[in-house]
Amino acid sequence: MSTTLTPTVAAAATAPAGKGRWLTHWEPENEEFWATTGRRVARRNLAFSIFAEHLGFSVWTIWSVVVVALPQALFPYTVDQRFWLVALPNLIGALMRLPYTFAVTRFGGRTWTMISALLLLIPLAGLMYAVTARPAYWVVLACAALAGFGGGNFASSMTNISFFYPERKKGAALGLNAAGGNIGISTMQLFVPVVIAAGLVYGGLMWVPLVLAAAVGAYLFMNNLSVAKAPFRAQFATVKRPHTWVMSFLYIGTFGSFLGYSAAFPLVLKLQFPDAPTAHWGAATITLAFTGPLVGSLARPFGGWLSDRIGGARVTAACFTLMALGSYGVVTAAGAKNMGLFLASFWLLFTAAGAGNGSTYRMIPAIFAAKSPDLTVAKRESAATLGIAGAIGALGGFYLPRAISDSYTATGGISTAFTWFGVMYGTCLVVTWWCYLRRRVLISQMPSLAHASI
């Protein structure tokens, strides 16, 4: 069943539709259409997209909490084996992001949100099996890898929402969508310890009704957009664009850091400062680990909002500068055993990475809008690039925990890893300046760059 939206028939945007609810007319750049119809429909889809993506992130990173809670007597794993359990889901999630991105343009955002939400039941079942049956380590590792299904949700959600909003609103909209997903990490790290105090199996079981609710919500209240449909060949044209790979590299520095630190922070905090303050809720012990992803998630929409006003490249450059300083702070704090500086440095890293996530994702549609005279092509290629950059950037979420583990194994500490992280952020800063902030670049593209808020 198809539904046609016009500025004068706003009811069509909200009227119940059939199983294949597609919106065949969508003009967010038309201010009258946006004011009378588009804004309301976009916000409704954004709300349910955030809910589903929030659960995806929660499931994706759930092993970062479960690993810390595994009793050594029942799960006699080394430090390196435990780091593998938190790193591997990030690798699988990164790989899942490419097919999830293109699934939106094949099946529709509403349809794929339902499917991807229901797929989260697979890693939840794997988690419950692993902690109750206590199989061999390689089986537990495979169960942890299944959590990567949650990583794909982000790419499909961001691709879908990018079609709903006009260019001038995308920074804030994508920032809110991403923040709602990212904050799932801190939600999970705050509440799962409380639940698993009653038994590890409940860490997976608690999400099942919420996952079902997300699938039902997408079915009832979301829409598919005909304008988002595109053949694979047209979408893959973006791989020929140099900016696709530049932005993918920069996203390793921002999102890869946010994801990697989110996964590793609970274990790193426990190893570096076993006596760090904790809170107790009944039999549950809650650490400060959830605060890092929380501040990073809250900073993401601010990064997108600020990029809409002063330009994404400027915000991104500032974020990489702060992240380099944060890395230096972690190295200094680890050497001095200064827990206050350690926590402050990590909070700076999370905040700058979160804001940088918003600014880099704002840059992508702005760059393609400035480079292409055809707005339809620009939207299609920028949506594909969001997925590609998201996939490559998420690889940083695998690399960072592994680098921290290697540093800990080789030297007994984390300073070597964070020294190299600081070098990486410096490199990202130089690339941002060279590609998007140099005077020659600004002058040669001044009209389009000013309009696109790069």
Give the key terms.
454 residues; mainly alpha; Growth Hormone, Chain: A; 77% helix; disordered C terminus
Quaternary structure: single chain
Order of strands, widest sheet: 1-2-3
Q: Could you please say which CATH topology applies here?
A: Growth Hormone, Chain: A
Low-confidence stretches: 1-20, 446-452
Describe the structure.
The chain is an all-alpha fold. It has a single domain (2-452), classed as MFS general substrate transporter like domains (Growth Hormone, Chain: A, Up-down Bundle), CATH 1.20.1250.20. The protein has 20 helices and five strands. It has helices spanning 11-14, 31-60, 63-69, 79-107, 109-119, 121-133, 137-145, 149-164, 170-196, 202-205, 208-221, 232-235, 242-272, 291-310, 312-336, 339-371, 375-411, 415-437, 439-444, 446-452, and strands at 2-3, 22-23, 224-225, 279-281, 284-286. The strands form two sheets. The chain has a three-stranded parallel beta sheet. α1 (11-14) links the parallel β1 and β2. α13 packs antiparallel against α18. The radius of gyration is 22 Å and the shape is globular. The model is unreliable at 1-20 and 446-452 (pLDDT under 50).
How would you summarize the topology of this molecule?
Layout: E1 2-3, H1 11-14, E2 22-23, H2 31-60, H3 63-69, H4 79-107, H5 109-119, H6 121-133, H7 137-145, H8 149-164, H9 170-196, H10 202-205, H11 208-221, E3 224-225, H12 232-235, H13 242-272, E4 279-281, E5 284-286, H14 291-310, H15 312-336, H16 339-371, H17 375-411, H18 415-437, H19 439-444, H20 446-452
Parallel strand pairs: 1-2, 2-3
Antiparallel strand pairs: 4-5
